[in-house]
Amino acid sequence: MSDVNTNATRRVIPDRLGTPVSRIFSSWEVLLFGVAVLIFIANSLASPYFLDAWNLSDATFNFTEKAMIAFAMALLIIAGEIDLSVAAIIALASTAMGAAAQAGVDTPGLVAIGIGVGLACGAFNGTLVSVLKLPSIVVTIGTMSLFRGISYLVLGDKAYGSYPESFAYFGQGYLFWVFSFEFGLFLLCAAIFAVLLHATNFGRQVYVIGNNDFAARFSGVPVERVKFILFLLTGLMSGIAAVCLTSRLGSTRPSIAQGWELEVVTMVVLGGVSILGGAGTIAGVVIAAFVMGLVTFGLGLLNVPGIVMSIFVGLLLIVTIALPILARRIKQASKS
Amino acid sequence: MTKLLKSRELLLSGIIALMIAGFATRAEGFAEPGNLVNIFNDTSILIILALAQMTVILTKSIDLSVAANLAFTGMAVAMTNAAFPDLPLVLLILMALGIGAALGAINGFLVWILQIPPIVVTLGTLTIYRGMAFVLSGGGWVNAHQMTPTFLNVPRTVFLGLPILSWVAIAVVLGMGFLLTRTPFGRSAYASGGNPTAAVYAGIDIGRTRFFAFVLSGAMAGLCSYLWVSRYAVAYVDIAAGFELDSVAACVIGGISIAGGIGSVAGAVLGSLFLGVIKNALPVIGISPFAQMAISGVVIILAVVFNARAEAKKGRIILRDRAATEVTA
């Protein structure tokens, strides 16, 4: 949206970065980690039920599915685009799986359908943005309406619920002791996306596009192709999240995952990814996922209703973006 | 350029007329004046919100919190009416405008002073405002029997063949037309979206323009909150859920560029009417009302594609296009 920020001062790139120690302690990830620890302590003081291995394991379900999408969304936002249709993709993928399950398709087929629908939706978004060169924010507002609209068209006010027993593993199964399959998948995705973003050519291209789309073109970066792949990845992760969520809930309604796009974007931004593109890390998103999971779970233990929690999520989003801006202002004011 | 804009609005009017004619062949009486008045009345709230959204979009921002603002303000007004039935309606409407403007000012303040991207701000306040509506009401409803008859009846009162609700929309359309094309604020709004750098050199305070656009958008949402609550005779937390997207969709369909600086009042009104006609036609021609969301989605996407073509024709980014093809070649 506001890619042209005329009032902002030009970003200065210093000759030398600060000392390693001061850099580490002023980095967003470390600050956020501190916040996570504080929330953890506050939670364990506020509720006697918090420090329990099974309860904590349950708490991870609050964020694992959203975080999987957030990894892909982080890359997309770093590249200067956004996908607001992720929750709608979940709804459509889940509806497709529900319809297939009713027709007698077994677990492997259902997973393939869920992921396939996710990929198809991602490809659709990607085509509109990178081939037709349309602004991603409006395109995905449109596809958000379209994808969820198809779910409503198919399901109306009904629900699908006849999933095979073995399908329940993805959302309800445990690898060992309290470690759920979803949590394992979350860690695996985190590792894969961290490598993809921080240790491959593709990752560097994502940063370059986000920082200067124009220069990237002149440097031979296949901008449109990279963007297309990013939308495809976001669709894929939404499909995987749809499999997990559907399996966990055991039913599909067209309103499934309503409002998740907001929480996913919040998670990404809270993780220190610049909404203007060009900066951010996967580690930050991982910590942000824990922070949001801990906050919502802690509030849940204190019997705070979900909609009130959303106030906290909204505040968290605005405050975490406002604070660094204020801090920078104060720093500049004290310098001059 | 005026030619292009004119033709665009003519085209949209033509499409709407064709749609009405088409639906009339399937359902008798669809094109009758009485029904058309109904459709307009039904679309009035969307028209007002779309015009507010348009002002924000013109300045290269977006306001996703309008529907949440409407829900909170509507709840506040309805509860006040239920608690103090003796309060005159004018005071309640002023209160709605005031609360709405205040919530809009919060958005505007964050965008102006802290320079947080508008989409992030309003995504955040969207959840906050709706959450506040829940906190305010405790999840309860305000039903028709708790509201005073004046509160409920004024927007329905027919005056010169049209309900007051429609007259309010017409007044807002005229007012916005004047504001955007005949006042310094309107020109600043177009300038700060069309070319922010040039606007700054021309002495326009972009931040302040955006701030006032958000305040206006909030005030309009406040006005709509009263209209909505009295029209549907109920207030609860989830009223107008997802309506922010309808307002954006109406703008996009009406040819308002999401990149800012381009668009007309007539476009936004026609975009709203387009959605309104579809919404009213679906049940009449026997299509499931659940299809409406999917249809809106398709229409938004088509409109974006169409807009992009119209803008590309003007050749504003010739250099970049050529550079891009040279690079890929």
Can you describe this structure?
With 336 residues, chain A is mainly α. In chain A, 71% of the residues lie in helices and 1% in strands. In chain A, strand 1 (174-176) and strand 2 (179-180) form a beta hairpin. Chain B has one domain: ABC transporter involved in vitamin B12 uptake, BtuC, CATH 1.10.3470. Chain B has 14 helices and 2 strands. The interface between A and B is large, with 58 and 57 residues.
Jot down its keywords.
heterodimer; A: 336 residues; mainly alpha; two-stranded antiparallel sheet; 15 helices; disordered N terminus; B: 329 residues; ABC transporter involved in vitamin B12 uptake, BtuC; two-stranded antiparallel ribbon; 14 helices; 1% strand; globular; disordered C terminus
Measured between the Cα atoms of the first and last residue of chain B, the distance is 32 Å
Alpha-beta content class of chain B:
mainly alpha
Total E-strand runs of chain A: 2
In CATH, the architecture of chain B is Orthogonal Bundle
Supply the number of helical segments of chain A.
15
Contiguous uncertain segments of 5+ residues of chain B: 315-329
Shape type of chain B: globular
H/E element string of chain A?
HHHHHHHHEEHHHHHHH
**Shape summary of chain A:** globular
List the helices and strands and how they pair.
The complex is a heterodimer of chains A (336) and B (329).
Chain A: H1 20-26, H2 28-46, H3 53-60, H4 64-78, H5 86-102, H6 107-131, H7 136-155, H8 169-172, E1 174-176, E2 179-180, H9 181-198, H10 201-211, H11 213-218, H12 223-249, H13 260-270, H14 282-301, H15 306-335
Antiparallel strand pairs in A: 1-2
Chain B: H1 2-26, H2 33-58, H3 66-83, H4 89-112, H5 118-137, H6 149-153, E1 158-159, E2 162-163, H7 164-182, H8 184-194, H9 196-201, H10 206-232, H11 243-253, H12 265-284, H13 291-313, H14 318-328
Antiparallel strand pairs in B: 1-2
Helix pairs in contact in B: 1-12, 2-7, 2-8, 2-10, 2-11, 2-12, 3-4, 3-5, 3-10, 4-5, 4-10, 7-8, 8-10, 11-12, 11-13
